[in-house]
Write a structure and sequence with these properties.
With 228 residues, the chain is of the alpha/beta class. The chain has ten helices and eight strands. The radius of gyration is 19 Å and the shape is globular.
């Protein structure tokens, strides 16, 4: 209440501010920036190691258990389907993830690659067909945006935070409906041409978050507000 301005990361948060009667200050949406010059070299795809990829912590917030259920459903239709998971979690969560994989005989279908970043992560994106955004109450963050900037189409649970960030470049599954999500994954895997077009749209949509544009918007807010 004593600030000169308020910055939020998603459009829906502006609505929450108004509902809480924060109206005096200028309010701006500032989403993270993508360094497009670093993702551009990874657009060309000739070989694939994975059908899909997920990046995030092993945490219920990220929909990790929904993710495992989705891929189990995909494997029932495509027995050799391969999912790469980049990330990690605490010992208890990692044990649960590994237990699910073992109990459902998915050792040849789900690959736990640990934390990856930078070029190493982009190289994996380049060898993957689809990005899965199973986040349950945040938008999916920078990992989803970076994947889209590498030309990956996205399948995502449909809720306002994700819609506000991802926009074009995604197929939207009903919220928490893992069967619908798996169905949309299979639709893209069975139609590479559609997946490619969706990936192209994803990259074009992410250009609004190019780091230079994001940084210019942010500094512009401060200059216009005369904040020091």
């Amino acid at each position: 209440r004593y600030s000169n301005a308020i910055f939020v990361t998603y459009e829906p948060d502006l609505k929450r501010l108004k509902e809480r009667r924060f109206s005096k200050q200028p309010q701006h949406v500032v989403v993270g920036g993508i360094e497009f010059d670093k993702t551009t070299p990874y657009l060309d795809r000739t070989t694939y190691d994975y059908d899909a990829i997920f990046v995030g912590r092993y945490h219920p917030q990220k929909g990790i258990f929904q993710l495992l259920d989705i891929w189990n459903r995909v494997v029932r239709e495509k027995g050799n389907a391969k999912l790469a998971i980049l990330g990690n979690g605490d010992d208890a969560m990692e044990a649960q993830v590994k237990s699910y994989i073992a109990n459902h005989n998915l050792e040849n279908n789900i690959y736990l690659l640990g934390f990856k970043d930078g070029d190493e992560k982009y190289r994996i994106f380049q060898r993957t067909k689809i990005y899965l955004n199973t986040n349950l109450y945040d938008a999916g963050g920078m990992a989803t945006m970076e994947a889209m900037s590498c030309g990956l189409p996205v399948v995502s649970f449909d809720f306002p935070a994700s819609r506000s960030m991802i926009g074009n470049g995604a197929l939207w599954a009903r919220y928490l409906d893992t069967e619908d999500f798996a169905h949309k994954v299979m639709a893209l895997l069975n139609n590479p041409a559609e997946a490619s077009l969706l990936g192209d749209r994803a990259r074009q949509h992410m250009k609004r978050y190019d780091w230079q544009a994001t940084a210019s918007r942010l500094t512009g807010y401060f200059v216009n507000a005369k904040i020091t």
